[in-house]
Write a structure and sequence with these properties.
Helix 1 packs across helix 3. By secondary structure, the protein is mainly α. Helix content is about 30%, strand content about 0%. The chain has one domain: Di-copper center containing domain from catechol oxidase (di-copper center containing domain from catechol oxidase). About 40% of the residues are buried. A two-stranded parallel ribbon has the order 1-2.
Length: about 290
Amino acid sequence: MYNRKNQRDLTRAEKRRLVDALLRLKRSGRYDEFVVMHQEFYVSDAEDRLRPAHMTPSFFPWHRRYLLEFERALQAVDPGVSIPYWDWTVDNTPSSSLWADDLLGGNGRPGDRQVMTGPFAYGQGNWRTSGGTTDDRFLARDLGRSRNPVALPTKKEVDRALSDPVYDVQPWNSVSVEGFRNRIEGWGIRDSRPVANHNRVHQWVGGPMAGAGSPDDPVFWLHHAFMDLLWTRWQKAHPGGGYLPGRKPSSPDSDRDRVFGIDDRMPPWNVAPSQLLDHTRFYRYV
């Protein structure tokens, strides 16, 4: 059992160890394998193949296992490291602590949006992106999206999602009109903006975070640790609720072979959502 902390509560030593572990994982080539994995399993509604990671009920358990695997890779480098979380309802400006030079570095420069500060700046020689979003190999950010401004989600928006007592509803995808999963994942829903919560954070950061290669920016892990924490908060608020669907949609539903019921095993780990409902044997949030 280990702790995941709010990034604003990290000590200088904890930040240094996290950054060092990320850079060592990058040098080994292992980091880029996680980027490729996310690209592979970012499957949209329109694609006729398994959809475990996004626009689907398994959004939360799939990413929980994904973060666990990444955290284990970090801990193989430094056993004392864990993934911190970024509460973007509080730390919601480009001057927030996570964008300082001792953690993630800051915004991209005007023009090409290349990040010039911090340990992941291309000029430091330590960080080349996978090229999954653009042909550029440098890390880019456009915090707040300068040409078409977007604001980070608010606590009120998150609370609205947390208050929904149902985990997910048919058709179990990006157009589900209710349910905690889609309200937090942030596709179009009746009482929200066209893009909300999780998705809007990706847009706000920009650069690789705006596409399937989003783990190219290390902030991805802090963002998804907060997603994981919000799932935990929803479970505590709705003890009578639970993961849905309980089983695959019945034929001839077009999602039958793409959506994962609670005991259906998700690739690439062959693990079911039912095995990932409780994180407390691995870590706790402090």
